[in-house]
Amino acid sequence: MKVEEIKSLFQGQKEHTLTHRYVTNSHIVHLLDDLKKHVDVEVIGTSVLNDSIWGLKIGTGNKRILMWSQMHGNESTTTKAIFDLLNTFVNVSSLNYILEACTLYIIPILNPDGAKVYTRINANEVDLNRDAQLLSQPESLVLKQAFEAFKPHFCYNLHGQRTIFSAGKTNKPATVSFLAPAQDKDCTITANRKVAMEVIGVMNGALQQLIPNQIGVYDDAFNLNCVGDTFQSKNVPTILFEAGHFHNDYEREHTREYIYISLLSSLDYIAKHNVDGSNYKSYLDIPENEKCFLDIIIRNVNLGTETEETIADVGVLYQEKLVDSKVEFIPKIESIGNLDGFFGHKELNANRLQVLGADGQSLKTGDENVFVIMKNEKISLLLG
């Protein structure tokens, strides 16, 4: 499929009831009711706090793809893209060839308790993506059981990443990142990983047409406690998706589209090809993620006095906090010093003037400031 065709499908099939960053079971339950006419919908387990975990099955093909999203409750962009994708399959008959070749099994929110309070961890304060071996949590067992029952040929592990990541050591944000996880401690490029790499190469090729040089890959250090590494070690090609930052897109609506494009382009490819890993090498050209970004950098700040200058840069990161069922972005001083090796999604230049906190005091690491004071003028650090 051509990228422009996929973009057009997204505009027509975007699920408009899902917006911003806060997505929970209560936001998707009505969508599941509507989908039941076309999609097999079932409760496949419950969370620590006894909330439902749903599994959705669509398609009749022999190639089986298992997807799960919001393993980390505060990573909702991929969940939005999943429902955009489901709308597309339900409403666009020209894509029936994908469903005739493939069967998809989707867990839209694996960690509903974490989603409800907008945290990475579950209600027992466990990171489910480090529980693949212990299987200490009910949500981990639900995923394991789905994996064993469905017997997938591909696994899509859908996540979100922070604004700090760059695509290589550049001033380009890693808007989407991928990984074909290792399946042994030597990070061997096995035949199984090559299959995952080939599919990632296809998605990267599609995205490069739209956001060139804004795609990265994660370090493939092996950790069998991670779900992706575990499933890869079971010889099922597994792909980690990370929805990252696009310029000024803190609501992750642009990134949502790029995840949708990734999903649909990969499924189109799998449906049409026998993916054997022979075309894996383009994956190796994707730059590795680096942590080169801060949300705001104020350059050339005088931390001394008007008569005795101490010049440094001030780096700000937004803290995501759930306030009245909406995610707010609270500016927090992350670092003070020489930030020449970093880029700001927004940059200000103090031109060697003093910059003070909202309380009129000197800036300190760890302070939350919705604005700073420069030349007796309040400068907002909030979004917008």
TrEMBL record:
Cite the Gene3D superfamilies for this sequence. Zn peptidases (3.40.630.10)
Query: Can you tell me which family this protein belongs to?
Result: Belongs to the peptidase M14 family.
Which cofactors does it use?
A: Zn(2+)
Q: Which InterPro entries match?
A: Peptidase_M14
Tell me the classification of the organism that encodes this protein. Answer: Bacteria, Pseudomonadati, Bacteroidota, Flavobacteriia, Flavobacteriales
Q: Which SUPFAM superfamilies match?
A: Zn-dependent exopeptidases
Keyword field: Hydrolase, Metalloprotease, Protease, Zinc
Residues annotated as domain Peptidase M14: 14-270
Output this protein's name: M14 family metallopeptidase
By its UniProt entry, which Pfam families does this protein fall under? Answer: Peptidase_M14 (PF00246)
